[in-house]
Structures are given as structure tokens and as C-alpha cells.
Amino acid sequence: SKRVLEALSTHRHPPRVPVHLASHRYDVMIGPDLIARAGAHIAPVIPQKRAIVITDERVAALHLPRLMQGLAETGITARAFVIRGGEESKSLAVYAELINDILAHGIERHTTIIGFGGGVVGDLAGFIAATALRGVPFVQIPTTLLSQVDSSVGGKTGVNATSGKNLIGAFYQPQIVLADTSALSTLPHRERVAGYAEIVKAGLIDGPDLFGWCETHGAAVLAGDPAAQAEGVRRACAFKARVVQADEREQAAQGGRALLNLGHSFAHALEAWFGYDGRLLHGEAVSIGLHLATSLSVRLGFCEEHTLTRLDAHLRQNGMPAGLDWFGEPLSAGTLVSNMARDKKMRDGQLALVLIRRIGDCFTTRDVPMTTVFEFLQDEGC
Ligand code: NAD
Ligand code: MG
């Protein structure tokens, strides 16, 4: 039938989202079974048939044999380095140990580093690729929904510092990104929700077309429907590629890449409260942050109430965190505001916030006083 033919053709010619940057261009390939055929996709864009795969224990157990076989089939010699999973691995200590192991194993300027896992592995592997021998080729094979829709596109790499998340790093672009949607079948539901929150964020920034798509297909994405997931990844990557192409290093005075932080000032403050131990996932914090940023926009008179109602309905209908009530315990508004004040985007003591006028119309501001945010958080249930 037509559908089978379409499925077959997607299989042979998976959708590609091109990312065109001033100095470099690469493709994000999206579709099923890309891992099993990784060698065929990667070989044309790397300079030497040697690779180092960086992955975590969970992804290694579930998916590494298929990747190693897919590489070997095209004659790519690869050695895998497996780290422990979790945010704690995005540290200078793990970076130092891993890069020393890799250098001791022996790599050349043309050896490719492959990041195979979620955002933790991708950010760490990218930073190793950026710094080993002052830069070796890099390939991203993201395996979580969050890393497929967000972290694998755009070239931000790095590790966390004692004083905060992502404070050490580099912009470093991959040769290619393989977003294998079949890998998502083993992802726990909670991780799917967390990744989907970044698609909702993209919809709020991009406009009614993407946000409306979320309202129609979000439930299918969250249920793990492969076609809906692939389409969500494609749309979110296309959106992020557009934003990054226009403002690669987040230097635009207004708008640009900074808009991707919608909900994130609140999210980072919540994550700092819970301490990155898995009790609150980044995407869960983002989901609450989207509600808070929109609710603050309404309170300040920038945004109409019905936008907030529409967002909250979508989040709650899909069982996503949509407010501070999700915690079932009161948080301190004072602590959250001081967490927000430690953001690396602070300038001259002013918070950098992304607010929303309507779906598809967000803006950055440094004009909201911390006392206003403090009172707002108290009214939100702190
Ligand atoms: P993660 O990498 O910690 O992965 C989450 C969990 O899922 C881990 O336990 C991992 O082992 C497991 N996992 C991965 N793939 C799986 C699969 N296919 N099946 C089953 N389990 C699987 O977390 P994440 O949410 O992917 O990424 C979060 C990180 O990404 C954060 O450190 C964040 O700062 C970073 N990030 C970076 C950017 C960027 O632009 N570079 C953007 C957004 C987020
Ligand atoms: Mg994010």
C-alpha cells in the first residue's frame, strides 16, 4: 500500500535537516535503524576509518553492539569508552580521566570521536573532540528524545563546574548527527516527557504551526509512536537549525539563540534546588519553567491569559509538570531567586529572562526586578 511504500522510502532516504553555519555545514539525519547502518552514513564525512565511541553504561548495554557492528561493516575501526550515566559524569574529573585514557589509547588528528548517548554523553564527548589534539572530527549519535531534539544540534559542548552547570565548554560542530528514532523505543516514559518539553518550548517560540502540531500529535509522541516521534524530532531540529544558523554564538542583541532559554532561568533554579540527582529531570524543570515564564508574562501585562490557559491545558492533559504544585512540597521563593541570580546570563546584577507576548512571539528582557520575580514565585505557590 501507499503507506508501506512511504515507510520504505523513509527507510532508504531518511529526512535530513541541513545545518548551514558560516564556517561549516552538516546534516542531521532522522529515521529508524540509523545506528545499524552508522558506518555507511558516517564514512563519507570523516577523514579516516578510525573512531572512538564515547557512551554510557545503559546505552552500551542496550545499543552498543549494533553500533560497533554497523561501523565494522564499512571497515571503520572503533574502540568504545564507557562512562557511568548521569549528570555527575559531565564533570572535569570524568573529562580528565576519559581524555587521558583516550590519548593513552592513541588517537590521531583524523580520528573521529563519536558521542553515543543522551545529552550528558554528547556534551562531554563534544568537549573531548573539541580539545583533544586541539580538535578532532566529531559525530553525534543522540539516543534520548531530549538530545535528538535539542542538545545534539547547535554545537554547544562542555561540562559542569562546581559553581554551576555548563560553565566550562566550547562551541564545536559535528560532521553529522544521526538521530535514530528506533533507539527511542527503550527510553523510559519520564525521559520521553522530559525531551518532549523541549519540543513544546520550540513550539512556543516558533509559532502556532509547531505548537498546534504539538497539540495534535504530542500525545502520540509521549506514547512512543515512532512516526510521531520522528516527525517531532524533524520539526524541532529544523526549528533549532534555523535559530542557530541566524545566531551561531548567541550574540544577537535581541531574539536569536537566547530565545531558546524560554523557561530555562526558572528551570535551572529548580534543578539547582534539587541538585541534579535524578529527582527532577532537566526537561521536567523546563516544563514547569514554560508555565512560569508564560504566567509571569501574563502578570506583567505582556501576554493574554488565554495563551497561558492553552499552554497549561496542553501540559496537564499530557500529564506533564505545569506548575510548582507538581512538587507536593513548598519551595522557597528566596532560594529560587538567588539560584536564578547565579545564571551565567546575568549582567550588571539584572536577570536575563525570556518572556512571551503570544505563541510565536517571545523576547528577551533585563528589565524585570528580582523583587517582582520573588513576589511572583510566592503567588505561584512557593
Ligand atoms: P542523559 O544523557 O543523562 O540521558 C538520560 C538517561 O537516559 C541516562 O540514564 C541514559 O543512560 C539513558 N538513555 C540514553 N539513551 C537511552 C535509550 N535509548 N534507552 C534507554 N535509556 C537511555 O540526559 P539527556 O536528557 O539526554 O541530556 C541532558 C543533558 O543535556 C544535560 O546535561 C543538559 O545540560 C544537556 N543539554 C545540552 C544542550 C546543548 O545544547 N549542548 C541542550 C540541552 C541539554
Ligand atoms: Mg534545555
UniProtKB/TrEMBL annotation:
Positions with a binding annotation for Zn(2+): E198, H264, H282
Organism encoding this protein: Brytella acorum
Portion held of the full protein: 183 to 564 of 566
Subcellular location: Cytoplasm
Keywords on record: Amino-acid biosynthesis, Aromatic amino acid biosynthesis, ATP-binding, Cobalt, Cytoplasm, Kinase, Lyase, Magnesium, Metal-binding, Multifunctional enzyme, NAD, Nucleotide-binding, Transferase, Zinc
3-dehydroquinate synthase C-terminal domain span: 195-346
Gene that this polypeptide is encoded by: aroB
Catalyzed reactions: 7-phospho-2-dehydro-3-deoxy-D-arabino-heptonate = 3-dehydroquinate + phosphate; shikimate + ATP = 3-phosphoshikimate + ADP + H(+)
Family per similarity comment: Belongs to the sugar phosphate cyclases superfamily. Dehydroquinate synthase family. Belongs to the shikimate kinase family.
Function: Catalyzes the conversion of 3-deoxy-D-arabino-heptulosonate 7-phosphate (DAHP) to dehydroquinate (DHQ). Catalyzes the specific phosphorylation of the 3-hydroxyl group of shikimic acid using ATP as a cosubstrate.
GO BP annotations listed: amino acid biosynthetic process; aromatic amino acid family biosynthetic process; chorismate biosynthetic process
Main location as per UniProt: cytoplasm
Protein name: Multifunctional fusion protein
Cofactor list: Mg(2+); Co(2+); Zn(2+); NAD(+)
